[in-house]
Amino acid sequence: MVARAETLPQQIARMDLDRLRAYRENLDFYSGVQWEGATRRQRRLTFNYAKAIVDKTAAYVMQGLQVHLLPPPSYPQGEELAKEAIRTLREVHEANRLELLDLDNEIDCSVLGDACYKVTWDPVEKTIRVTAPDVQGLYVWWVGDDVSRIWRVALRYTLTADELEEAYPYLVPQVGGRPKARLSALRGPSHTLVEVWTPRSFQLWVDNDVVEERSNPYGFIPFVIYPNLREPKQFWGTSDIVAIKEVAQELNRAMSQLSTILELSGNPIAVLENVTEAQDIVVQPGAVWELPERARAYLLDLLQGGGVSLHVDYVNLLFRILHDLSETPRTAFGDNARALSGVALQMELDPLIKKVQRKRLIRAVAIKERTRLILRLLEKFHHRPYSQLHPEVTWDPVLPPDRSRLVEDEVRMVAAGIHSRRTAAMTLGSADPTGEFQRWLEEERAARRETQIAPSLSS
Q: Is the full-model pTM beyond 0.70?
């Protein structure tokens, strides 16, 4: 008897188990589940510095993100095409609330270690949909040892019966409609869906049945998958939680111990020596104890000998290790006791700046690729050659810049022919450098016309 081959949903259910387990553990740690083992009666305090560091770093990374479209040098009417595409791209950003989506995805990427965007066309609304699927349901196949060449992507998620009918109404049998005997099981309470994408084909599995199979309508895999921080020769990334997990747990333990000691010192323990029985022993002002001969009573002082200072020194050492491993100096939390500014502040925050630069390098590549997919879809459905445009990504500086000094530098660069006006506008944070350049040209033309008209009027 020939064994039945496993379906694709059954195969991916056994794939990447270590990666998925790490996702769950990191997500739990970020959510505050930071004590291991069963709960005991002892005090367990949780200071969720992991969440604070991840959220703060994400805000630094995504600060001032802007996407620009540059026309190809040899393309006619390139400036007009770029202006048109920028307006359309801005509409896509607003319709999908990409500012909020990017920040949420950055936090998710820092916690789990990976993130992705999905860019598709909505045939009902006639618009582009940009979403951020959960990477816990994402599976990727690449060619040999080249992790940059992806040939298949599968996305698994769960929908209720109502959600399935809303998303795929043509799959659910309707009353009075054409009978679909093999899909009668879709009336169940919930279902597991698997989308399988290759550059040429698309499959949709519901539970263990293929309910849709056709050619890829886009001609490309509509996913942009990127890591938080890349490991050499690895496809999947590393979470920020990994570096600080152990020291954060030790900090919780040390603070819990110190809290217990301080509580007991405020409610001292009565110690009786050479006493076999004790009744009505109360520690309170004015209390009188009757003790037998040769017995002794005293209160246990847990603070004597400077024991608490050792705990405090240890906690401060843990804080230093935490800031070092997370590359987030204490100054990033607003603790600038030395009132540093300028170059001194930049040197103080240099670890954070380097961390943000590494992350922005990876995010810029992902956002450029997302923009290229959007432009390809716009070209396909709007019939405009938007794929000829070149996307660029700019960010605000990590530290507050000296605006006047930056403007002076760009003026000199433009005057020396090193930077174009468009590049200078991008560097200074202009949201529409192409439009600014066109408006400058119009003003220059108007000024020349007025200069030419003025002498003729005076004569």
A: yes
